[in-house]
Specification:
Number of domains: 2
Number of helices: 26
Shape: elongated
Distance between the termini: 64 Å
Number of strands: 0
Order of helices and strands: HHHHHHHHHHHHHHHHHHHHHHHHHH
Largest sheet: none
Structural class: mainly alpha
Length: 592
């Protein structure tokens, strides 16, 4: 017990040390859609609304709603919550690794695995490749999903595995049933955080076969029986998604299935390199599509992955933890790196859970090193020194990477340097420069983005923002109307960039307002609110347009909505008082 408490405390201290500088990081990218522009998170009591808007990821959005109820739009609270989820995962991994080490050892010598579970948990806690899932608020999708995944796994392990040689008595049937039921329930809940948790049954099946049935193929049916209820849950959820949402995976065709598979074979190798050598991290990797299986890089990747998977399967009874770790890596990557094309080709947050497989492989090798090196030997001291050096180096990289996430400007400056031929980083850097008032720098970035991808909506939106700041209202209107013509209905707007569309509608309304076309301005502001009901300033500007038309009661109603959404926005209250003074003949009295 003392060792466990000490280990958990060390995990907490080191994890806090490397992520403390992330707590003041600003909102980024999808955060604006998930938080500031997300109507569903504004009222935690309206659970039905949260489910209606985000049925497939209800629990994830509910966690944002809890954050919003406590912290509003202040990102600090969200970062603290992300840190806590990551810390929980590191602690869960400590216990999972400990149980795997115990179940796979062949002697009673406790020194066989020593501090390996702690080392694995520490490496997970501080590894820089995981920063996108922790420091990026919307990366919570991966870290929160992992909490449910690892907890379900740990409960299942407790229900079917005995810690041999530790002096404990076999668990009662009641305890086993309780743990098993808890695992099944947590698994069911996990599917309302992130769909990729459908891989849990496959991981449980391999775990059961390796460590309970001792990799005896004639006993595989026993493992299948125990895990069968988990597969039933998967089938039920997939059927529900098909009937309720209308699609099992991504509803829009993004790219061809074949080219996606060929490309993802290479991406998996790139992920492996980033876990082993975390250099060149990027929020927006520029990854070329592969068009043929017989491209050299694609063919070599396929051969490597096939041999790796085959070796892991054939040696299940020899190197259990290594085989389990390899299969964990491949299986948990399958939802994002296989058949189903997703919006992004490569994203670092997608390897948050998968990286555990590589760490487990490392744990098995590390255990062998410690087993071969006597306690006071030079080899043991050398191994300890190497582990400490690796932890310190990874910690430094994580702290440095967190500093890159500090603001939109620092994040997208880094992305542009690493993906100079991709339009989106240039576009987002342009938007960040607009916010900083550097219109000339913003114009250069947007022009580069449009040269790379003339059809990118966000690039056109950024160009319109620059024109608006310069007072070029006709140019703003022309650019935005041409872009919106490609999306005649709001339902055609991709969900992930709905907030950007809402801001663009707001800007179009502002351009019309400055030209004195108040009815058109009102129509655009209302379109913006349909896409992002809580977009700042929109109700205030809508009120100003109504006021310009002499619709004072409608103007007051909009100003009151703005003030209710943003109580610190005193201009809305002042606008109301000005209208009421005008209606009272300038007497200075109001109805309040």
């Amino acid at each position: 017990m003392h060792r466990t408490l000490t280990s958990v405390f060390l995990i907490f201290l080191l994890c806090l040390a490397v992520y403390l500088n992330s707590f003041s990081t600003s909102l980024h990218f999808d955060d604006f859609f998930a938080i500031t522009g997300n109507a569903a998170v504004r009222d935690i009591t309206d659970v039905g609304q949260i489910f209606r808007v985000f049925p497939g990821r209800f629990l994830l959005m509910f966690s944002f709603a809890v954050n919003y109820a406590i912290h509003g739009a202040d990102p600090t609270g969200y970062h603290v919550a992300n840190f806590l989820f990551h810390l929980i995962n590191a602690v869960l991994l400590y216990f999972i690794t400990f149980m795997l080490m115990v179940a796979s050892r062949t002697t009673q010598d406790d020194e066989m695995f020593g501090h390996v579970p702690l080392i694995v948990a520490l490496l997970f806690a501080i590894h820089p490749i995981l920063t996108e899932s922790v420091t990026y608020i919307s990366g919570r999708t991966s870290s929160l999903a992992a909490v449910f995944f690892l907890l379900s796994l740990l409960l299942y392990m407790g229900s079917v595995m005995d810690q041999r040689g530790d002096g404990s008595r076999e668990k009662s049937m009641f305890v086993r049933t309780f743990l098993y039921s808890g695992s099944l329930l947590v698994f069911f809940l996990s599917l309302w955080v992130k769909e990729s948790n459908v891989t849990i049954p496959a991981i449980l099946l391999i775990l059961d076969f390796c460590f309970v049935e001792e990799s005896r193929w004639n006993k595989l049916k026993n493992s299948l029986k125990r895990v069968f209820p988990f597969f039933v849950v998967v089938a039920a959820i997939l059927l529900w998604r098909r009937m309720y949402i209308g699609a099992v995976g991504e509803p829009r065709a993004i790219r061809g299935t074949a080219e996606n598979v060929y490309t993802q074979m290479q991406v998996i190798i790139s992920y492996l390199r980033l876990v082993l050598i975390p250099v060149g991290q990027n929020i927006d990797h520029d990854y070329p599509l592969s068009q043929s299986l017989f491209e050299p890089k694609t063919l070599l990747s396929v051969i490597f992955l096939f041999v790796l998977a085959l070796t892991a399967i054939l040696r299940l009874n020899k190197n259990k933890v290594i085989s389990f770790g390899i299969l964990w890596w491949l299986i948990t990557l399958a939802p994002t790196s296989s058949v189903i094309p997703l919006w992004d080709i490569m994203s670092e947050r997608w390897i948050y859970l998968s990286s555990i497989g590589i760490l487990l492989v490392g744990a098995a090798f590390l255990r062998e090193v410690y087993a071969l090196a006597p306690q006071v030997s030079f080899r043991r001291r050398l191994a300890n020194g190497a582990v400490i050096a690796i932890i310190l180096a990874l910690s430094a990289l994580t702290i440095t990477r967190n500093s890159v996430w500090k603001t939109e400007y620092t994040l997208w400056t880094d992305a542009v340097q690493k993906s100079p031929d991709k339009a989106r980083p240039h576009t987002n850097l342009g938007m960040a420069l607009v916010e900083r008032g550097d219109l000339e720098g913003a114009a250069r970035e947007v022009e580069t983005a449009l040269a790379l991808d003339p059809q990118l909506p966000e690039a056109a939106f950024s160009l319109a923002s620059i024109n608006l700041y310069k007072g070029k209202y006709d140019e703003t209107i022309a650019v935005l109307n041409a872009t919106f013509a490609r999306f005649p209905d709001d339902s055609q707007v991709p969900v992930r960039i709905a907030h950007a569309f809402a801001k663009a509608r707001f800007n179009l309304g502002l351009a019309y307002f400055h030209k004195g076309e108040y009815s058109r301005a009102i129509a655009e502001y209302e379109s913006a609110l349909r896409l992002a009901p809580y977009l700042p300033w929109t109700h205030n500007n809508l009120g100003a347009a109504y006021e310009a038309l002499g619709e004072y009661e409608l103007a007051i109603a909009e100003y009151e909505k703005e003030f209710a959404l943003n109580p610190g926005f005193v201009q809305a209250r002042q606008n109301i008082e000005n209208i009421r003074r005008r209606l009272n003949g300038g007497s200075g009295e109001s109805d309040d």
